[in-house]
Amino acid sequence: MSDKTTQKDSVNLSRRSLLTKGAAAGGALVAGAVSARAASPDPLITEIQDWNRYLGDGVDAKPYGVPSQFESNVVRRDVAWLTADPKSSVNFTPLHELDGIITPNGLCFERHHGGIAEINPADHRLMINGLVDTPLVFTLEDLKRFPRENRVYFLECAANSGMEWRGAQLNGCQFTHGMVHNVMYTGVPLKHILNEAGVKPEGKWILPEGADAAAMTRSIPLEKAMDDCMIAFKMNGEALRPEQGYPVRLVVPGWEGNMWIKWLRRIEIGDEPWHQREETSKYTDLLADGTARRFTWEMDVKSVITNPSPQAPITHGRGATVLTGLAWSGFGKIARVDVSIDGGRNWETARIDGPSLSKSVHRFYYDFDWDGSELFLQSRAIDEMGNVQPTKNELRAARGVNSIYHNNSIQTWQIKPDGSAENVEIS
Amino acid sequence: MSDKTTQKDSVNLSRRSLLTKGAAAGGALVAGAVSARAASPDPLITEIQDWNRYLGDGVDAKPYGVPSQFESNVVRRDVAWLTADPKSSVNFTPLHELDGIITPNGLCFERHHGGIAEINPADHRLMINGLVDTPLVFTLEDLKRFPRENRVYFLECAANSGMEWRGAQLNGCQFTHGMVHNVMYTGVPLKHILNEAGVKPEGKWILPEGADAAAMTRSIPLEKAMDDCMIAFKMNGEALRPEQGYPVRLVVPGWEGNMWIKWLRRIEIGDEPWHQREETSKYTDLLADGTARRFTWEMDVKSVITNPSPQAPITHGRGATVLTGLAWSGFGKIARVDVSIDGGRNWETARIDGPSLSKSVHRFYYDFDWDGSELFLQSRAIDEMGNVQPTKNELRAARGVNSIYHNNSIQTWQIKPDGSAENVEIS
Fold first, then answer.
1. CA A158 → CA A297, A325, B26, distances in Å?
2. Cα distance from B133 to chain A (closest Cα, Å)?
3. CB within 8 Å: A64 and B67
4. CATH number, position B377
5. Which structural domain range is residue A414 located in?
6. In chain A, which residues have their Cβ closer than 8 Å to the Cβ of B196?
7. Segment B109-153, tens digit of pLDDT
8. ipTM, 2 decimals?
9. Any residues with CB less than 8 A from the CB of B230 and at least 6 apart, and which?
10. Can you give the pTM of this predicted structure?
């Protein structure tokens, strides 16, 4: 995925532009530094860089590894004012600190309705009941005897970017777009489990239910359940994390995160939807005329620039600059991402790098020389079905500003001459 | 990737075979259990499964998440007798506990020669010197201004499976094959950095050097350096872990792990190899005639069954069984994996599931009904270049048994009627 413009930007990082930036950044990248150092030892190396003078920790220090102490700022963050209690709240993936397409398990955003159920897997069961030939109860070991698959999918909360409906609110992509993560799931296709129980001809919907205190439930059409839904027990190779539904969660590719029932304990099969709290009072989209869209499951095509951004300003001065971000769609693969540095007047095609997988985030880059002037950065994703990410005003014209869900509009970051960034709106 | 036999096994998990296994495993998977429960409440649900009766931890509990307390056995393990001190030792990835193709960062095996350098990234520098037009010194921020790429690669220690040369030694794939991991790297193609300095026409080799106490160095041909080598600063989305070279390591796709210099601080360009300790005294392959193979960089095509295996026996009794494992090759993608349950007399093609990427591990499955008899499990990988994984005796006939490096031979696990597994050799 690249066009001529991007190719040029990628390969034409001239020596001159890099030397200029080196000087601007404090002189580290300067030709001749080596010979100067030979004549007069650099105090950085002789006094500060002392890590090669002693033996470090051995292999027995951390049987399960943790990040460097210098990365302590790379964490999930909540906004305490958002909810009455952290047990029914959300925290956000630090998108501005990440790259590639895999979200590390320890940094996947959380959203709970009754706190994290701490389940002993040996005592956990999954029941299939309702309109089936044979009601069944599965242990975790039973589930692991069915054929497995491995798929990388994004999970996005329907309320991601929800506070942006009424204007630029939160100053950083961790908070505006951080209710998304992307991991490789290992599990059993749900159809295998449903076929084992035998769905009766009148069975048209399923109701997965969580084993947490909130007993989360959502109605899902049988057609989706038999298509690409999974019962997952691993994420990024290891067991699900407790906050992501350990020991088993439902995976509903491309659809809103609320439906990916965690701590999955029961799936009922019925002939019509149940109209539960989470699909009536919540997770519906209130329109300008007072009516509400319901069953808006698919997550629309979307993208955001993660760097530079308010939490990750440009600190190196003018010259060669890497702009990067994420794009995703509940309808399949991303076909193209465009980037504008002038608030949407001109667009260039970004370079997508890394695996391009259906219903997974895609990583894009736009490599350019910053001249130090004010910029208005935007990204616009287009998926393989031809869906195009709308502007904020286009979306508002269609849906009003009453909803908190399904805001997939184009985000703008203002870059100031000092390199700092701000969440702004341009009309 | 599947053949007719596998397809049949995948879809023909008959109700009968599952009900049989359910009974054998303790009766959890039994038709009618639901109605029985309605009449007489199951004590498991009413007394033991109490996690839905109280609110769990909220989102502020762990800003950087950790695994469930019930997964405390999923850790890297060393073998204390292997080396004099853990600072120059190795620990092993728990392959038998993982699935999919991504190794979580906290579980990637470690190998150090002088312990883990704990580097402050603000003070770290990368120098390019030797046969270049302009010697250069880069800060981490400088490196992040070059165009980036994202690639999933396996890293395997040349000594992986090294103790198996003289016969079955270690009882578990974590120890026989656990010096391999597979992550998505984000970084800068090395060619961009070398081109920035300008390699002189007589420059034919590079010598990357680590900033740890061991100052690890290896000679690498310039052709490989300019092909697919990367300077990586992220793994699986986040910063490299300290034990994996934080803040920057060299990525040398498909080649032995010892060359992937961690804590990378310098790259010298020269006109011939340096013949350092790690490519003369160590990491050479002593043959039967007393001569040694040198510069054996590529990791040969290889596979191992991770489940069932000695650390992960069959506990569910006969019936539907998922056999799974990993295959990889330093020469590209895996084209096919064959599985034998009778010690190599008959072979079936396994099902590869998940992304098939060059120089990355591939996950394979073989779904079969176990009849409870003794089995001798083997897997045999074939890569896209046509390389075929050899038997142990084929490899010994070619190379003798003096080496500890580059053992890519077929591994055998004996499955006993009670489901336990053992590392064995069959002639």
1. 8, 20, 41
2. 10
3. yes
4. 2.60.40.650
5. 302-424
6. 13, 15, 18
7. 999 999 999 999 999 999 999 999 999 999 999 999 999 999 999
8. 0.90
9. B149, B151, B185, B187, B188, B189, B190, B250, B251, B253
10. 0.91
